[in-house]
Design goal:
Largest interface: A-B, 21 and 19 residues
Strand content of chain A: 5-15%
Distance between the termini of chain A: 42 Å
Shape of chain B: globular
Distance between the termini of chain B: 51 Å
Number of helices of chain A: 15
Number of strands of chain B: 10
Largest sheet of chain B: 6 strands, mixed
Strand content of chain B: 15-25%
Helix content of chain A: 40-55%
Radius of gyration of chain B: 19 Å
Order of helices and strands of chain B: EEEEHEEHEEEHHHHEHH
Order of helices and strands of chain A: HHEHEHEHEHHHHEHEHHHEHEH
Shape of chain A: globular
Oligomer: heterodimer
Largest sheet of chain A: 4 strands, parallel
């Protein structure tokens, strides 16, 4: 467990060392619809670009200050040279602020590979599969041109196997959180899922196996507080989770794009590997920006909350995050109908500890009101 | 030395009816807020004394100062107090407390003491933040909404405004009512915008109209918060009975405009002080502790 924490303390160190050791290339990505397997099959290390609050406001020279703190933060990271080890940047169509951040990154920072994947927005439309397929095929071709090496079916099979193993192991970790007395804290789970996005998955698989073995030796844990779901905008570190759990609650499940949604479904075997990948990314638990036609996300989130016997939901949304704000009314309504308390926090990326601790403690007090008293 | 218009009066109060010397259970509550600390002493379930003091940078000493003043007003020693509960942002730094509780639950309990058990909606406007709460008949908070980061509309915001317009903070509300018709409110989204708009208004409007515009903007912000709570927890209507706590609600210019916008009259104070509601609620929780033997 300690290893995951150490990796997150400096999320760049691993990729830098990996590059030095292997001489390989590193691609950074912004959206978790990025088909990592294709890059991995070409011997590239894909890393998720994490955000940090842009306290100095340096990205506001290029982006509107009314963009979400996540997009401002990722661009600031780039401008400050935190990601100067990246050889390539890939953007998968998501929201406008991230698109603005990427466009500025591409314009102002030297990377030899820049690529845009036109991920469909209407995932249930018949055309989505064809578009996704053609975009992934094109991406594979561009990667091959860039590296000068053909990606074989064997390469793809290996990548898919490594990634599916990682997803299966992460599912096992999340299954342990479903228990009445979860043996894995939300903090630990978040450390695992975030580190999976910044290191070689094969190595992460080894770490996960060791962690699962360590967890299996555990007896009773102290994770006995109210069971919460964490929902909302992407997070790039564990500070919010840590604060929530420090108040005595335990986060048993999340529905974050770079949390559960990142690994929840596997690539199913098909003769046409690119088609299999296309289906995997189309079938992921929906992000709000990809859920505009049939609104499948709300029911899926509520069903997951019920499945994990959630007693309350913390809904943490970045300020000015339009996709999540758009999602908010139906999600709040759905939880209200099921009498599951929800507390929404709108934040700018920083965590004002005193205020948020009060909020979470008060929320726990509400959850702990005896059922006989609740009318 | 320039005048400190922001400076509200520190206070202490002691009941003439309650005799702590004859009480069987004496408890205390301390609310260490963002800009002030409050302490309340309760004897056998009745408020005996309270104090309100300024904060400095040390929560522990401020809490102690408030408690000492309240103890002195009540005519007792700390050793007479059976249990102490602390609340507020500085609650974790009160080593003398037996327990801590959030200011939301303390204000809820305190409000039902001050305004009566019929309180179902509570607005607490404190030094740093504003909280709208739904409360059940037992004094439990069943839903709440808080303002985000910006201090617009909170005590700290009004303090800076008082200095800017050079009007003593305790006079702002009353003077703001001395207008024939309310002007448009200044911006309520940001303390800097609000003060900047008020500064512009000062050049062309009478001072009382600027005060009115400012109080209206604070009331409007509170109104929006209460409506959000109503949408979240109820049917879109603010549930009566409504109570107001926190130092800011003593400003009649804000409270009356809020009532006007809501179309609801807030409950009148029956006993105690709305500014000390958190401390009173903490004392009630301390009494619960003492009664249950915890």
């Amino acid at each position: 467990m300690e290893r995951f924490r150490k990796l997150l303390e400096d999320p760049h160190r691993y990729a830098k060392e990996w590059k030095e050791k292997t001489g390989g290339r590193v691609i950074g990505y912004f959206s978790h619809y990025f088909p990592e397997e294709i890059a991995y099959a070409a011997g590239i290390l894909p890393v998720s670009i994490f955000s940090k609050p842009d306290i100095e406001g340096i990205s506001q020279r290029y982006l509107y200050s009314a963009f979400c703190p996540y997009s401002l933060g990722v661009l600031a990271q780039g401008l400050k040279g935190e990601y100067d080890y990246l050889d390539g940047i890939v953007h998968v169509e998501s929201c406008m602020p991230i698109r603005g951040a990427v466009a500025n990154w591409w314009d102002r920072l030297p990377v030899s590979f820049k690529h845009y994947i036109a991920m469909p927005s209407q995932l249930d439309e018949p055309s989505a599969k064809d578009l996704m397929y053609s975009e992934l095929t094109a991406f594979k071709r561009y990667i091959e041109d860039w590296t000068g090496k053909a990606i074989t079916e064997k390469d793809l099979d290996h990548a898919i196997e490594v990634y599916n193993t990682n997803r299966t192991l992460m599912r096992q970790v999340y299954e342990l959180r479903r228990l009445d007395n979860p043996v894995v804290s939300g903090m630990e789970a978040m450390e695992m899922v975030l580190t999976s996005q910044i290191i070689d998955k094969e190595e992460h698989n080894k770490l996960l196996k060791e962690a699962l073995n360590e967890i299996s030796q555990r007896g009773d844990t102290e994770n006995t507080g109210p069971r919460l779901m964490l929902l909302g905008s992407e997070i790039s570190d564990t500070s919010l989770v840590e604060l929530i759990e420090s108040a005595g609650a335990v986060i048993v499940i999340d529905a974050l794009c770079n949390g559960r949604n990142y690994f929840w479904n596997n690539v199913l075997p098909m003769d046409d590997r690119m088609l299999a990948l296309a289906f995997r990314y189309l079938d992921k638990p929906r992000s709000p920006v990809k859920d505009e036609s049939y609104r499948r996300r709300v029911n899926e989130i509520v069903a997951t909350a019920i499945d994990y016997n959630v007693q309350g939901v913390v809904y943490a949304i970045h300020r000015f995050c339009i996709p999540h704000q758009q999602d908010r009314p139906p999600i709040e309504k759905a939880f209200k109908q099921r009498v599951i308390p929800l507390h929404a926090i709108e934040y700018d990326g920083t965590i004002p500890e005193g205020e948020y601790l009060t909020r979470i403690e008060a929320f726990i007090e509400i959850i702990n009101i005896p059922t006989s008293v609740k009318v | 030395m320039t005048a400190e218009y922001w400076k509200w009066p520190e206070s202490e109060w002691a009941s003439k009816e309650v005799d702590c010397k004859k009480a069987s259970i004496i408890v205390a509550g301390v609310d260490v807020g963002a800009i002030s600390s409050k302490a309340a002493i309760m004897c056998d379930g009745e408020l005996a004394a309270y104090s309100v003091v300024y904060n400095d940078s040390d929560s522990e000493t401020c809490a102690q100062k408030a408690l000492d003043k309240a103890l002195k007003a009540a005519g007792i020693e700390k050793s007479d107090v059976k249990k102490i509960v602390s609340t507020g942002y500085g609650r974790a730094n009160t080593s003398f407390a037996d327990k801590t509780a959030t200011e939301l639950s303390c204000h809820a309990r305190g409000a039902q003491y001050i305004y009566g058990p019929s309180v179902r909606t509570l607005l607490d406007v404190g030094g740093q933040d504003t909280k709208a709460m739904s409360i059940d008949q037992y004094g439990n908070v069943t839903a709440f909404i808080m303002n985000d980061k910006c201090a617009a509309g909170t005590g700290r915001g009004i303090e800076t405004f008082a200095d800017m317009v050079s009007v003593p903070i305790q006079d702002i509300g009353e003077l703001s009512m001395d207008v024939e018709e309310d002007p448009e409110p200044v911006s309520s989204t940001c303390i800097t915008y609000a003060n900047s708009m008020a500064a512009q208004l000062m050049r062309k409007e009478e001072k009382n109209r600027v005060l009115a515009a400012y109080c209206f903007s604070v009331a409007w912000r509170d109104y929006i918060l209460l409506m959000r709570l109503a949408n979240q927890s109820g049917n879109g209507k603010v549930e009566e009975d409504l109570a107001l706590t926190g130092g800011v609600v003593k400003n009649t210019g804000i409270a009356s405009r809020l009532e006007r916008e809501l179309g609801i009259k807030a409950l009148p104070v029956m006993k105690g002080d709305p500014q000390a509601a958190g401390a009173i609620g903490a004392a009630i929780l301390a009494a619960d502790m003492a009664a249950s033997g915890n």
